[in-house]
Specification:
This protein is α/β, with parallel strands linked by helices. It has helices at 10-22, 33-40, 59-69, 84-92, 105-116, 140-151, 169-178, 197-205, 222-225, 241-253, 279-284, 290-296, 313-328, 337-345, 351-365, 378-381, 391-399, 413-429, 435-454, 459-466, 470-479; strands spanning 3-6, 27-30, 47-51, 75-79, 97-100, 159-162, 187-191, 230-234, 255-256, 265-266, 270-275, 299-302, 334-335, 370-371. It is 45% helix and 11% strand. The termini are far apart.
C-alpha cells in the first residue's frame, strides 16, 4: 500500500481514508502502532502518517523503530497535543513533518503527496533534553516556530529572532540552545539595551587588569562565559556602532580581545540575537551595519504577537495560572467561560508577558476559585483601544486595580491610581528602595480596615469579601502590627 494510516481514533482514520480515496491514493489503516509494526515485517508503504498518543507503543517509539529498519521511509507525525516537546521529539526522531490536530484535510493530503515524492534520507535521531522552557501554542504561527526549532536542533547556525516585546524571544533562544548539540554547555543571555554604553564592551569581551579606572582585576566577558555554548544577545538593534564592528569581527574570524588586552582569544560560541526593531530600517538609516545584519540574519524566526494567536490564550492562561499557583502554594484559579472570552478578546499590547502578569494578578487578587468577569482588572474588562493610556499608567492600573468607588466618594478609581503613580514617581526620584513592599503593606492594611469597618468587625465575613481565609486575615493583621478591632477602626499598635 502507498500510505499507511496509524491512529487509534476511528474518526481520524475515516476522514483520511475518504480524502485519500478522492485523491486516488492507495492506503491501509491500523488502529495501533503494534499492528503496523507487525505488518512492516512483511511489507513497507511509501509513506506513514501516525498519531503520537496511542495505547501500546506510542507514535514516537514507533517512529524510532521504523527509522531503524527503514531510515528513508517518510513518517508524518500527528498530534492533538501541539507542544514544543512533541514537535522537537518528532523532528529529532526523523519525522518528515509534524501535523497538529485539528488539521485541514486538503493540507494533510497535500503533505502526504509531497512525502510520496520524497526520496531523501531522514534526519538522524538524538535524545531530547528533559528540561523545556514554557513554549506553548497551537496557532499555525507557533507551530512554524516549533518546526524551526526542531529542524535547527542539529545545527549551530546563527539565528535572528524578531518580534514585539513580550512575545518570548528569550524563551525561544533557550529552546534552541536546549535542543542543540551545545545543550550541555552554558547558555548566557545579555540584554544589550540594559547595559550602559561605556560598560557594554567590557561586559561582552571582558577586560584586563588596569585596562581602565576601576579595573582592579582581570574579568572574563560573556563570550568567555558562553564558551562552547550559546550567547543570546537581546535587543541587538540598540548596540552602539563601534561595538557592532567588534561583534562582526568575532563572528567573522572567531577571535576577540579583552579590553586592554593584546592576546587573541578564540571564541567557540553560537550567537543568537533578538530584536523588536526593524533592523532593515536601521541599516538604511546608517544605525546598524549592513554586513553585521547579514551575519546575524542567517536564519530568521518571527514570533507572532499574542493578538495574532488568540486561539492560544486559553492554553497559555491555564498554564500561567497553574504556574503562579504553584509558586504561591495555593490551588490554581479557574476562569469561567465568560471571563476566558473576555481575556481572549483583549488585544494584549504587552503580549505573552502581559498575560503571565495578568494570571499572577488573578491568582493573588481574584476572590474565590472560579474567576468571573467582575473579578478581572478594569483595563481587561473595558480595554481602551482607541485612546490607550501611557505604558506607565497601564502598569499601575494592572498592578493595583480598584473596585468601583462608592457613590458617596467624590474620587474615582482613576484618581486613586494616578495618585499612587505620582507617589511612586516621587519616591523613585528621591532614590528610595523597597517601595513595592511598603505600598503592598499599606494597601493590605487599607483593605483590612475597610472590610472590617463594613462588616462591623466580623472577621469571617471580612475575610470572605477580601477573598482570603479567616486565618489569612488574622495572620496579616499580626504581620502588619495592627491592633484589634475597636469602634469600627483598626489602628496600628
Amino acid at each position: 500500500m502507498a500510505v499507511w494510516i496509524i491512529d487509534d481514533d476511528k474518526a481520524i482514520r475515516w476522514v483520511l481514508e475518504k480524502a485519500l480515496t478522492r485523491s486516488g491514493i492507495a492506503y491501509q489503516s491500523f488502529s495501533s502502532a503494534d499492528d503496523a509494526l507487525n505488518a512492516l515485517d512483511k511489507a513497507a508503504p511509501q509513506v506513514m502518517i501516525c498519531d503520537i498518543r496511542m495505547p501500546g507503543t506510542d507514535g514516537l517509539k514507533f517512529l524510532s523503530r521504523v527509522k531503524i529498519s527503514h531510515p528513508q521511509l517518510p513518517v508524518i507525525i500527528m498530534t492533538a497535543h501541539a507542544d514544543l516537546d512533541s514537535a522537537v521529539s518528532a523532528f529529532q526522531g526523523g519525522a518528515f513533518e509534524y501535523l497538529p490536530k485539528p488539521f485541514d484535510i486538503d493540507q494533510a493530503v497535500e503533505l502526504i503527496e509531497r512525502a510520496l515524492a520524497e526520496t531523501g534520507p531522514a534526519t538522524p535521531t538524538s535524545i531530547v533534553p528533559e528540561a523545556l522552557p514554557a513554549l506553548l501554542g497551537q496557532a499555525p504561527a507557533m507551530q512554524d516556530v516549533f518546526r524551526a526549532i526542531g529542524r535547527l536542533s542539529q545545527s549551530t547556525v546563527t539565528v535572528l529572532i524578531t518580534g514585539e516585546s513580550g512575545t518570548g524571544k528569550e524563551r525561544v533562544a533557550e529552546a534552541l540552545h536546549q535542543h542543540s548539540t551545545r545543550s550541555t554547555r552554558p547558555f548566557i543571555a545579555l540584554n544589550t539595551a540594559a547595559i550602559p554604553k561605556d560598560l557594554l564592551e567590557s561586559e561582552l569581551f571582558g577586560h584586563e587588569k588596569g585596562a581602565f579606572t576601576g579595573a582592579q582585576a582581570m574579568r572574563r566577558g560573556r563570550f568567555e562565559e558562553a564558551e562552547g555554548g550559546t550567547l543570546f544577545l537581546d535587543e541587538i538593534g540598540d548596540m552602539p556602532t563601534e561595538l557592532q564592528t567588534r561583534l562582526l569581527r568575532v563572528l567573522s574570524d572567531s577571535h576577540f580581545y579583552r579590553v586592554g588586552g593584546h592576546t587573541p582569544i578564540k571564541a567557540n560560541v553560537r550567537v543568537i540575537a533578538a530584536t523588536h526593531q526593524h533592523l532593515e530600517d536601521h541599516v538604511k538609516q546608517g544605525l546598524f551595519r549592513e554586513d553585521l545584519y547579514h551575519r546575524l540574519n542567517v536564519i530568521r524566526l518571527r514570533l507572532p504577537p499574542l493578538r495574532e494567536r488568540s486561539e492560544d490564550i486559553p492554553l497559555l492562561a491555564r498554564h500561567f495560572l497553574q504556574k503562579s499557583a504553584a509558586s504561591l502554594g495555593v490551588d490554581a484559579k479557574r476562569l469561567s467561560p465568560a471571563a476566558m472570552k473576555c481575556i481572549r478578546d483583549y488585544p494584549f499590547p504587552g503580549n505573552v508577558r502581559q498575560l503571565e502578569n495578568l494570571c499572577q494578578w488573578i491568582t493573588v487578587m481574584a476572590p474565590g476559585q472560579t474567576v468571573e468577569i467582575s473579578d478581572l482588572p478594569p483595563e481587561i474588562k473595558t480595554p481602551q483601544l482607541e485612546d490607550e493610556p501611557s505604558a506607565a499608567s497601564h502598569i499601575v492600573s494592572q498592578t493595583v486595580p480598584l473596585a468601583p468607588t462608592p457613590p458617596h466618594s467624590p474620587r474615582t478609581s482613576d484618581d486613586w491610581v494616578q495618585g499612587l503613580y505620582d507617589e511612586i514617581q516621587q519616591r523613585l526620584e528621591a532614590g528610595e528602595s523597597g517601595i513595592a513592599d511598603d505600598l503592598t503593606q499599606r494597601f493590605e492594611a487599607c483593605c483590612i480596615r475597610a472590610s472590617l469597618a463594613y462588616t462591623a468587625g466580623r472577621k469571617m465575613e471580612a475575610a470572605q469579601l477580601l477573598g482570603w481565609g479567616r486565618n489569612t486575615l488574622t495572620r496579616k493583621i499580626q504581620e502588619l502590627g495592627m491592633a484589634t478591632f475597636n469602634d469600627g477602626n483598626l489602628k496600628h499598635g
